[in-house]
C-alpha cells in the first residue's frame, strides 16, 4: 500500500511540474484521487505527515530571530487582521445563511464566528515551502510573513486551551529551564560533526521538544519551534537546516496526501468551498492595508499579504473541535478540507507572479505607503561601487573577498539577510542590506559608476527577475551569474545574462589553477 502512495504522488507531482506548476498541487490531487479510488490510508501516512510538520516548525525556528516577533507590524498586524477578518467573515456567513445555499443555511452567530476564526489562519506548511523554493525566507517580506505565522500558532494554542478547557500541567513552568540548558544544546550540535549524526541530532531535538511540550499539556509543535529558536544563533544552524531539508520535504508529501483523505465531497461541498476561496482577495486586502497602516513599504505589504492569502490546515482542527462540540455539522470538515486545498493551489500559482505583478502596478501600490518609513525600510546607497555582488552566501562572499583584493573599496556586497549583513559588517566587509528583487531598490539606487553586477543567488528564476528589474531601472553595465547545472546556464544566457558561470565546473577550474600555483612554487 505504501508503494501506491509513492506511485500516485510521483506521477501527479511530475505531471504538475511538467505543466510548470508547484509539485504540491499534484500531491494534493493524488490524495483526493486515492480517496476516490477507495484506497484506505494507513497510520503510517499520518505519522509521516506529523513528522513533516514537526521538522518544518523546527527548521523555521532555526532561521527565526525572536526579535522579529516583537515588532509592532508582526504582533499588531496579526491580531488586528484576525479580529477584522473573523468579524467580516461572520457577517458574510450570516448574510449568506438567508440565501438558502447548502450548508450555509444552518449557521448561527456562534458557528459563523468560529468559521471566520478558523479561516483567519494562514498555512505554515504552504507558505514556508513556497518561500523556501523562492529563496525568500530571509527577505523583509519573508520575515514578516513568518512572524505572522508564528504569532498565529501561539494564538492557536491559546484557543485550543480555552475551547477544550485543558489547562497545561503545573510542570509547564519547568519549560523555562530550557533557556538554562541552551549551552548544552549548542554543545550537542557542535559534537555531532558534519556527517549522518547531524540530521539525527536534528530529529532528536525536534521530536524531543515536541514530546516535552506534549507531556505538560501544550501543543507539541510549539516545542519543536522553540527548540529550533534556541539553536538559531548557533554557527551550524544553517548546516543543520540543510541536513534536514530533504527529510522535511519528503515527509511533508505525507501531509499533502493526507488532506485528500479527509472525506469524499459532493458537488455542493465543492461549490461552497470555491465560494469561500472567492473571499481570499479580501484577506489579501486586509493584510495589505493593515501592513501599510503600520508603515511597512508597499512592496513588503504587497508580497507578505500575497503569501499569507490562503487558508490553514489549522482550520480543520478548529472545525473538528466544533463538530465534537456540536457547533458545526460534520460536512464542514470536508468543505474546509477542500477550501484549504484550493487555497494552496491558488497561492502557489499566483505567488509565482507576485514580483511581476508588483513591477506592473508599482506606482499604484506605492500610493498607499506612509511618508514616514520604518528604520529597516530606509535605503542605503553604496559609495563609489564599481562592482556589486548580490547575494553574500558562501559563493558570493568568496567572490567578494577575491575581488576586494584587486579592486579594494570599489567592491560592494548586498544581501537580503539582515543578520548575515551585520555579521559581515562586523568583519569589516563593505556590505549593504537589500533585496535584489526589490524594484524600488534599483529605482532609487545610483548605478552610474557600477560597471559589473554579480548575481550569486541559488534560484535561476530570481536571477532572471533581477535581470529584468535592472534593465528596466536603466542599468547599462555587465551582468554575471552562477548556475549549478548546464541547462540552467544555457537558460540564463538565452534570457540575456552576459556571462553565467557553471558553479561546479568553475570550482574545479579554480581548484586546478590554485594547485598549479603550488606546483610552480615547489619547482
From TrEMBL:
Keywords in alphabetical order, please: Antiport, Ion transport, Membrane, Transmembrane, Transmembrane helix, Transport
Species for this entry:
Lacimicrobium alkaliphilum
The residue ranges of the Cation/H+ exchanger transmembrane domain are 6-349
Is Transmembrane helix one of the keywords?
Answer: yes
Keyword presence, tRNA-binding: no
Give the matching Gene3D superfamilies.
1.20.1530.20, NAD(P)-binding Rossmann-like Domain
Q: Per the annotation, which location comes first and is thus the protein's main one?
A: membrane
Specify the protein name. Answer: Potassium transporter Kef
